[in-house]
């Protein structure tokens, strides 16, 4: 049989031809895929460099803004959850196990504040002095004046110092590190993605919302706190990214720790209307207590501002240790104090002693530089005040006795709302954390006289702004500058311009410019704006050159305003990545028109 007629040979030949054709097809297909991938990369880079920045530079809500906020919030939430998990692990070993004085004296944990003070000092010394500032007041300063750009180097110091402070039973709150770490995480990513400055601020405050929600499982309170305390205004293009981030923080907290409402153990009963006159008197007392607390804390802060750090930390550690030996319930964030306030048969004398101890421990810790927040301790102080008011009132009006739980919640709401100048955030936070809507009306009623007594009667101010004044950090921004900060330069820049590299062509280009800006680089490599000025007489047009400054396309209209406003004339050029890559020009006339339009 001939080889060509062999069936086996034909089958093998067919298989080889199929294999060859398949290989050849793959060889042809591979370059096509590479080209498609390269084109996709080019398109993506172009989109991120131009279209995305154009969207984010505008002061309006967009899907791109919300998606970025959500992605950054996931990262910020992970950082906060890591912090919480480490804190839970540390508290398992360091939290005082007994609240009995005789058992506590021999407990080595009673001396932990002194150890914590030393550890905080070591972390502070290891870090750079340039990045030693931290806390809510510092974050507020960076949001107001630096678009929320917080140095990444400050994150490590905040993380470990706050971990040591909370782990060694200082009277500080968890929201301080949550706000700082959430802000740093989101703003760092925003800067890495080279987003416009106006959107960096939105990412920063969104990260703060994620941090608060991941800490307290209170997403709505996180949104209100950011708008009321940090941003201090309501804008729809702020609201949705902040809300998405708060949802992300709360969901991540529930996935790890469960859907827990920290204060739902407090028994709250609906209070009759005939109790409201007593509540009004309680509001006056709470307002006085809040004003006293703020004054004392700020006095200690100002006094110890220039002391060596180690002295301040050791003094705070010594005071906390002494208080813990006698009244260990006064230590920690405020959970022990709340537990005493809502116990079955609380002793009035014990609650009064515990109130003074808690206030002293908190003032010593925060005022002398222990890193941490205020909300937790304020909850403890407010709960004690509310319980004391209820017990004293019950001596005269026994019908008040069943409402001790409600009074504790009212006290917590008033203390946080007045001390932080955040009454709405305080109300919503307690509503979410107690999971009981019956607190709304009495808490609102009490907060009003408390706020008026403190702010009008005793001239109290927000404790955060007072802390900024003591630290010498500015936070005030003029309304026109604040409005211009909300829009990036890409929203207003004129993309119609000409760059001339040859002097011989300059005059011809100017004649044909048709309203377009003409730029030229001089011998010193400085860009100049070139124009033809028509003299009043009949002489020929005069060629004029003016140096022109450049701004990155990630800056806002405020930076252009700062450059152009002194002379009320001129232009600035806008560049992308490097000053040689000019993408637009903004004139004073265009900027003034934008200001007068009422759109900012």
Structure description:
There is one protein chain. This protein is 64% helix and 6% strand. It has 600 residues and is an alpha/beta fold. Strand 1, helix 21 and strand 2 form a beta-alpha-beta unit. Helix 2 packs parallel to helix 6, helix 8 packs parallel to helix 10 and helix 13 runs parallel beside helix 15. The chain is elongated, with a radius of gyration of 32 Å.
Question: Which features does this protein show?
Answer:
single chain, 600 residues, alpha/beta, four-stranded mixed β-sheet, three-stranded mixed β-sheet, 7 strands, 64% helix, 6% strand, chloride channel, transmembrane helix, chloride
Describe the structure concisely for a colleague.
The protein has 600 residues and is of the alpha/beta class.
Low-confidence blocks of residues: 7-12, 25-30
Form type = elongated
What do the pLDDT scores average to? 87
- SS element count, helices: 23
- How many beta-strand runs? 7
* Distance between the first and last residues' Cα: 93 Å
Biggest β-sheet description: 4 strands, mixed
Q: How does the helix and strand content classify structurally?
A: alpha/beta
Spatial extent as radius of gyration: 32 Å
Write the layout of secondary structure elements.
Layout: H1 7-57, H2 63-94, H3 101-105, H4 112-126, H5 136-146, H6 153-167, H7 175-192, H8 197-216, H9 219-231, H10 236-257, H11 276-304, H12 309-326, H13 335-341, H14 348-367, H15 375-396, H16 404-419, H17 423-434, H18 440-457, H19 463-471, H20 479-484, E1 497-500, H21 506-511, E2 517-521, E3 527-533, E4 542-547, E5 549-552, H22 557-564, E6 571-575, E7 582-587, H23 588-596
Parallel strand pairs: 1-2, 5-6
Antiparallel strand pairs: 2-3, 3-4, 6-7
Helix pairs in contact: 2-6, 2-7, 2-8, 2-10, 4-6, 4-12, 5-19, 6-7, 7-8, 8-9, 8-10, 9-10, 9-17, 11-14, 11-16, 11-18, 11-19, 12-14, 13-15, 14-15, 15-16, 16-17, 16-18
Membrane topology: Multi-pass membrane protein
Transmembrane segments: 65-90, 110-127, 202-226, 238-257, 278-297, 309-327, 348-370, 376-397, 404-431, 437-455
Subcellular location: Membrane
């Amino acid at each position: 049989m001939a080889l060509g007629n062999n069936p086996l040979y034909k089958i093998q030949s067919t298989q080889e031809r199929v294999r060859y054709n398949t290989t050849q097809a793959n060889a042809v297909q591979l370059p096509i895929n590479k080209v498609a991938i390269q084109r996709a990369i080019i398109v993506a880079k172009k989109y991120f460099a131009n279209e995305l920045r154009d969207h984010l530079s505008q002061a309006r809500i967009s899907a791109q803004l919300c998606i970025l906020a959500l992605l950054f919030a996931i990262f910020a939430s992970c950082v906060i959850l890591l912090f919480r998990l480490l804190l839970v692990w540390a508290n398992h070993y360091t939290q005082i196990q007994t609240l009995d004085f005789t058992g506590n004296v021999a407990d080595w944990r009673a001396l932990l504040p002194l150890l914590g003070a030393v550890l905080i000092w070591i972390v502070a010394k290891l870090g750079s002095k340039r990045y030693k500032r931290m806390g809510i007041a510092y974050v507020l300063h960076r949001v107001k004046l630096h678009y929320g750009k917080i140095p990444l180097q400050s994150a490590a110091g905040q993380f470990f110092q706050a971990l040591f402070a909370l782990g060694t039973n200082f009277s500080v709150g968890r929201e301080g590190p949550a706000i700082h770490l959430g802000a740093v995480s989101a703003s760092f990513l925003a800067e890495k993605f080279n987003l416009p400055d106006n959107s960096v601020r939105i990412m920063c405050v969104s990260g703060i919302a994620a941090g608060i929600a991941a800490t307290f499982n209170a997403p709505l309170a996180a949104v209100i706190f950011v708008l009321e305390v940090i941003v201090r205004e309501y804008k729809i293009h702020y609201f949705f990214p902040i809300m998405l981030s708060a949802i992300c923080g709360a969901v991540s907290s529930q996935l790890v720790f469960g859907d827990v409402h920290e204060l739902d153990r407090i028994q709250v009963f609906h209070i009759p209307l005939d109790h409201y006159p007593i509540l009004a008197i309680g509001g006056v007392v709470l307002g006085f207590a809040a004003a006293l607390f703020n004054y004392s804390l700020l006095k200690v802060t100002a006094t110890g501002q220039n002391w060596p750090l180690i002295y301040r930390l050791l003094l705070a550690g010594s005071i906390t240790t002494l208080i813990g030996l006698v009244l260990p319930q006064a230590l920690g964030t405020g959970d022990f104090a709340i537990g005493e306030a809502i116990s079955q048969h609380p002793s009035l004398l014990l609650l009064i002693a515990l109130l003074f101890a808690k206030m002293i421990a908190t003032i010593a810790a925060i005022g002398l530089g222990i890193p941490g927040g205020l909300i937790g301790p304020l909850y403890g102080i407010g709960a004690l005040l509310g319980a004391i008011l209820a017990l004293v009132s019950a001596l005269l009006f026994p019908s008040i006795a069943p409402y001790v739980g409600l009074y504790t919640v009212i006290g917590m709401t008033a203390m946080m709302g007045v001390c932080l100048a955040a009454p709405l955030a305080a109300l919503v936070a307690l509503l979410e954390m107690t999971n009981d809507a019956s607190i709304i009306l009495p808490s609102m009623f009490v907060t009003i006289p408390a706020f008026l007594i403190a702010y009008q009667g005793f001239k109290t101010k927000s404790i955060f702004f007072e802390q900024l004044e003591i630290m010498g950090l500015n936070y005030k921004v003029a309304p026109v500058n604040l409005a211009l900060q909300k829009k990036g330069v890409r929203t207003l820049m004129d993309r119609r311009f000409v760059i001339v590299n040859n002097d011989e062509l300059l005059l011809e280009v100017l004649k044909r410019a048709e309203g377009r800006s003409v730029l030229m680089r001089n011998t010193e490599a400085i860009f100049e704006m070139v124009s033809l000025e028509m003299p009043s007489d009949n002489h020929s047009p005069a060629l004029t050159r003016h140096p022109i400054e450049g701004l990155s396309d990630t800056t806002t209209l405020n930076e252009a305003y700062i450059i152009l406003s002194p002379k009320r004339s001129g232009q600035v050029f806008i560049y992308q990545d490097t000053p040689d890559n000019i993408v637009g020009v903004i004139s004073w006339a265009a900027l003034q028109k934008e200001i007068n339009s009422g759109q900012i």
